[in-house]
Prior knowledge:
Strand order of the largest sheet: 2-1-3
Radius of gyration: 12 Å
Structural class: alpha+beta
CATH class: Alpha Beta
Number of domains: 1
Oligomer: single chain
Amino acid sequence: MFYVYLLRSMARTEKTYVGLTEGVEGRLEQHNNGENPSTARFRPWELIAFVAVANRVRAAELERYFKTGSGHAFARRHLW
């Protein structure tokens, strides 16, 4: 399975992050350990939601959607 996940910074709650992984818990740990340069300065992160998708291509499409304007609006209304 592939997971599209949504994180929110606990230090600066207006900061959010959307990513794709095969292991949500391990990936969250990497974000909180500062191993991702784009999220390191806003640690710690909390997991808000994730969606499991069997197909990697479909998961990448969903991740891309959540990073668009309409995807941001959907997430703001229903997930954040």
